[in-house]
Each structure stands twice: as C-alpha cells, then as structure tokens.
Amino acid sequence: MIRLENVSKTYGSGAHAIQALKHVDLHVPKGSIHGVIGLSGAGKSTLIRCVNLLERPTTGSVQVDGEELTRLSGPSLNQARHQIGMIFQHFNLLSSRSVYDNVALPLELAGMSKSAIQERVLPLLDLTGLADKADKFPAELSGGQKQRVAIARALSSRPKVLLCDEATSALDPQTTGSILELLKEINQQLGLTILLITHEMEVVKTICDRVGLISDGELVEEADVGDFFTAPQTQLGREFLNDFLELEPPGALVERLEAEPSVNTHPVVRLAFGGDAVATPLVSRLARECGVDVSILQAKVESIQDRTLGLMIAELIGNSHDTRAALNYLEAHDLKVEVLGHVQRDA
Amino acid sequence: MSNAMLELILESTLETLYMVGIAGLIAAIAGIPLGVLLYVTRPGQILANPVTQSVLAIVTNVGRSIPFIILMVAIIPFTRLIAGSSIGTNAAIVPLTIAAIPFVARLVEGALNEVPPGLVEAAQSMGATPYQIITKVLLPEARGGIINGMTITVVTLISYSAMAGAVGGGGLGDLGIRYGYNRFDPVVMLITVAILVVMVQGFQSLGDHLVRKADHK
Q: Which residues form a coiled coil (chain B) (predicted)?
C-alpha cells in the first residue's frame, strides 16, 4: 500500500547540507500497522512527511496504493492526498471551528455538499465517541478528545492510508492507551493501512505488526514486532528494548562485574525467552540437570500482542564446568543468552 | 453655548466618523489582501516568492515610514485627481486611506504569523489548495488578530483625521484648531478632545468585544 524506494532527503546544499534521510526503502502492506521508531532527530518526521510529500524527497520514489506520488504536483497531488489521512502530535485542529466543522473540513475542501458532508461526519463522531461534542470548540476539549477529533477528521475523506506523526506523544499513558485502541479498531474495522512514527516502544508493542528502527536517517532494522522485542538485531534496537523493559543489572552489581572469567568467578547472564520457553520450569531444571544454582536478580514477563516475552538477569552459581554446561543448555532451548560479565564468588 | 456651535460640533463629529469609516473600510479591503500576500510569499510559506515578497515589503515599509503630515501634503496632486479637490472631508480620505493600507497590511501579516504552522501543514495534508488554505485556515484562524489590528487602525485613523484638520480636512480636529486654538475657545477645545476620547474608547471596546466573540482559543 505504501512503498518507499531509495528515498533520500537533503536539506541545504554544499558544505551545510544535512542529509535527513539516506536511501530508505520501506514497504507497508495493505491493512497492516507499521511503526517506525527512533530517537529525536533520527529522521522520523521527515520520513512520514515524505509519504504524503509534505516534504518532497530529494531522490527516490514514493508510491501509495500503486500511484507514484513523486511524479505528481499541484492539483493532482492534492487529489492524491485525499487518499491519505494524517494526524499529528499537537492535533492541529482549527480553533475557529467546532468539532463538527473540523471533521467536515477535508470534505469541504473536496467540494462536497452540506448534506453529503453531514452523512459522513455524524457516523465518524459516533465511531470516535464524540457524538455529544459536535458543537464544542477544540479549546473546550481534553488532549485525548482533541486527538479523537483529529482522527475523525483524517478519516472523513475515507483515506486508504493513515499517517500518525507522534500521535500519542503529547498524551498521558491512559489516554495514549485509549487512542491506540481506537486506531487498532479503525485498522480492523475499515482495513485501513497505518504508518506511525513514535519514540515510544509502548506504542509499537501495543498496536504495530511490523516495526522499523531509524537512526541518523537510515532504516537500520526492520522486523515483525514479536521478533523485534525478543531479538533485536542492532545495538540501538537492544538499547530501545532495554530502556523499555528497564532490565539493567543493579548498579552495585555492575561495579563488581569483570569482563573475563577467572577461577573464582561465576557468570551473570541476561536471558530472554519467548514462546514455549516461558512455560518451562527453567530454573529448577538448571539446578537438577546441570547442578547449577540460579540466583535471580531481576525478572519480568511482558505480553507483546499474542506473544509472551520473559526476561531475567541471573547469576549462575556453580563450578566453571557446570556453568558452561548450563549456558549450553539454555541456548539449546532457544533462549537468548547474553553474558553480561562475571562476579567474584562470595567467600 | 449657542445652538449653532452645538450643530457645528455634531457636524464635525459626523465628518470625523465619515472620514475614519470610509478610510478604514478601503484600507481593510486593500490592506488585508496585501497583508496575506506579504505572509504567504515569505520563504517556506505556501506561495513562497522572494521577488514578490521583497517588492511588497519595500513598498509597505516606505508607505509606513512617511510621516502622515508630510504624506498628506506630498500627495496633493493625487488627492486632487481622486477627490476633485485638495481640501475638505472627501479630500482628507485619500491620504488617510493611503497611510492606513500598509499599516493594516503589516498588522494582518503579524496576525497571520500567530497561526500555528501545523494548521497549514494539516490543511496541506488534506489536499487543500493555497487559496483554500488562505480562506479556510489562515484568515479564520487569524480573525481575532485581524479584528484587533483593525481596531488599532481605526484608533490611529481618528488621530490622523485630527491632523487632516490642519489642512482644512474638516472633522473634529479641524474644529478644535479653528475654534479652540485659533480663537482661544477652551470650551470648544475641551469638547472636541472629550468627543475624541469617547470615540476612541468606544471603538476600542467594540473591537475587544468582537475579538472575544471571534476567538475560541
């Protein structure tokens, strides 16, 4: 549905040129929810603005629903934009218009009659839970309600694609949840394709099917959300995941960690396990089958959509032969094992 | 005070309102589009055009730098061409209008500058044409600011119109100078000043009221 091929965007020229996007390829299939995550300044905003050509790519092509937008300009581009809805971090509602008139705006722009507009707007106000707010002005609404108006407005021209530019970043966690739920509902009911950019892993975890990681203008990693949360391929991906899971070894332990094992040390490991491994009574088996004691320092279980992800930081206590056997045992059972370091055995 | 004097005061008040009204109206009709052009031709704006922008900016700035009293005298041939005379109320409207147009334009430009750029971006993402962005987004969103600008313009025009009195333009300024100043009649002077104060207060209150009604912020 959305296809970006070799898209680059450069601001300025010569020595002052800034390359905001570097050879980005992105494909979002019809009906899916695709997230792009990255730190601020990584090029997320530029990327999503290149899809509806609010920013025109310096090179490369952008296709939406088979139409190559990068070939269009003027009226034909405006026409194509009716197929692409967009919502923003700061909602961008017109303060001079009521809720109803804000939702009606795209239809007015398209030249629809008043009665046809009404037939479209009222069901959308119902869908977004704003039926009783039609005559209110944006200043009278909460942040979550404003974003609902923006969503209704973006949907009014019956687009095939919805672009979400940090749509929940200005909202509190609870409101974020309800907006994401609404987006998911729209995706399922209307079969709408959604591309969203965010810096919040929570958003990706909650509604995305696939996720891309953008860094310094490059799409460095792309994966199904379940895979990304269990086994990110890049250092940045792991950092995002660790920040999200807040699973770092305790500070006091970090100070004692040594990079290389010696006679009197035992390993500290971070274990990530998905799927069947979650249900396995792992700790007791390690003790029984390898003769290793496991001291759990931190652990948590996360549900990533239909998958379950377990994470644990643990010391493997035993002699070096047994701990090595334990590591092999874990790897053989499809666990992701990362040895963080080694600590001195307590005397 | 004689009836004749009271009639004269009433007549002068109406003349002032007439001059300010007509000049303000024409200045709005010409100045608002000029202000919009000044804004939308800025770099990065929806109709960015450096050449048009700098020409308009220079014309506006020149218009605004000429002191009104000098402008009034300098354009006498033009005034005569338009109004058929260089003295009288109708003649005074010409320089008042010319002075007010760039004034309005800059105030409108400033009001448009207060519209969050995200709104224009949102309209673009909906496929709005530049004309639609101006009429459906920029002008309605800047309505309060524009009304505020027009209020300032009217108040300024009231004070300018008093200056027009110095060259026989009619109105309260004229009355104040002829009777109050030249004939040393402090009562007439005080009355004209009092009427001007009330007029300015009235327009300011009306303007503030309209801004409150227009703004849903």
A: none
